[in-house]
Amino acid sequence: MPNAIAWRTVCTELKENDVLIIIECLKTFKIGKSQAIFCTLCALPTPHLMCYKILNCRCTLCKQTAPYAKCPRRAQKVVYLDRKVASLFELGEHVARAIPPHSHNLTPAQKDFAKQICMEAARIHTAMLLHFGLRPSQLPALQKVQNVVCYYRRTKLGGNDTTAAIVEAVQRLAFNGGEEEHDPFTFGWDVDREGKLVVGNGSDEKSFLVGFSTKALLHQASRDPSTFIFHVDATYKTNQVSYPVFVVGITDIARKVPLLALLVTSQQQECHYAKAFAAIRWIYSKVLGEQFRVAYVMGTLMLPPKVIDRLKGLAHELLDSVIRNIYDLRYSKSADSFTLACTATKQRWLADPLLQSFH
User: Fold this and answer.
1) Which of 18, 204, 288, 354 has the fewest CB within 10 Å, making it most exposed?
2) Contact in structure between 90 and 7 (CB atoms under 8 Å)
3) Contact criterion met (CB below 8 Å) for 51 and 36
4) pLDDT tens track for 145-185
5) Residue 279: what are its φ and ψ, rounded to 5°?
6) Rounded-to-integer distance, Cα 148 and Cα 340, Å
7) Rounded to two decimals, what is the model's pTM?
8) Distance separating alpha carbons of residues 200 and 190, to the nearest angstrom
């Protein structure tokens, strides 16, 4: 039989928070083993569990002193799960006794605070500084806070950070026609040989495009076309990776904008717009059983920043003239009218000496 390890007692049956304070004063460590077993230390007659962890030294100073040897220092933390108390034991000595400076670990209170505000639009690291009245040197490392928040969001709130998890979630909710009126579903344009949605990783070769909607939302467009305007816009602040989100809706005579669908894409190029509009047309025909037709197309004119900078040096009369010419080009009803308006605009700008440099 193996010999029993002679652990030295550091503390016994203290509150777990007090034991964490003692561990915070020790050198940095790495958890080598952690598991729950039946308690063998208590004298209680009823069976109960305890969780023990083996803490191995991970001090950089010990590693520098003996780069090819493992530091013999170990610690054992035992938590009695029923009574919420813990004991701490140690074994061996550090290769180097000096304790180098290291970042603080999160306390249970700090972990609970980070979990509470992880869904809010707040900087958790800075909010923790103000909430607990800490100095910047007392804050845990940003990476440690991010690890706690990401793990909680992924395991408890349904947040998915891996491509495989996102692909599985999107394909699981893909439209099949059997959904109820208010059941959400996903849709897209590219499918594989098995008929499943192709969900890219966001690169140029494998772009990401996924739409979200319900039958009830799409049925809002089943009305007289003369009573509403089909509206498509984009926003950029709804996700952490800043993917553009196409907001598809209608503007009715009551100046309300009922939502029809949302499409998330990784890029904003012509091919992505084409696939997005094709996906909208496909899902509309599948749900409503009729073709999606657009009579007139009108876009919102946004003057480029370079044009605005060039307009700053013009007189007020010339400024109005240039903007009027740009709007004439923008509201052309056909390719022929656009060509005529473009030729006339160039002639006006070339005829005026002050606009020749602008042209």
Assistant:
1) 204
2) yes
3) yes
4) 888 888 887 777 766 667 777 888 888 888 888 888 888 98
5) -65, -40
6) 62
7) 0.49
8) 10
pLDDT in tens, 303-315: 566 666 667 767 7
Instruction: Give the β-pairing of 209-213 and 49-57.
Output: unpaired
Residue 29: what pLDDT?
80
Tell me the residue length of the chain: 359
Distance of alpha carbon 256 from alpha carbon 231, whole angstroms: 11
Q: Where are the domains of the chain?
A: 8-91, 108-156, 163-288, 305-356
Residue-wise pLDDT for 46-63, tens only, equals 787 888 888 888 888 888
Note whether 49 and 82 are within 8 A (CB). Answer: yes
Q: How far apart are the first and last CA of the chain?
A: 93
Cβ–Cβ < 8 Å for 97, 105:
no
